[in-house]
Amino acid sequence: MGKDYYKILGISRAATDDEIKKAYRRQALKYHPDKNKSPEAESKFKEVAEAYDVLSNKKKREIFDRFGEEGLKGGATSKASNNQAQYMFSEDPKTIFTNIFGTYSPFESFFRNGMNARNRCMFNEMDFENCFNVTNQKGFHRPAHTKSQGPCNQAKRLKQDPPIEHELYIGLEDIAKGCVKKMKICRNVLCSDHKTIKREEKILTVAIKPGYKAGTKITFKREGDQTPNNIPADIVFIVQDKPHPLFKREGSNLIYTANVTLREALCGASVDVSLLSGEKISFKLPNVQPGTTRLIRGKGLPHPMDLRRRGDLIVKFDIIFPDKLSDDTKEILNSCLP
Question: Of 192, 170, 165, 181, whose CA–CA distance to 42 is shortest?
Answer without folding.
Answer: 165
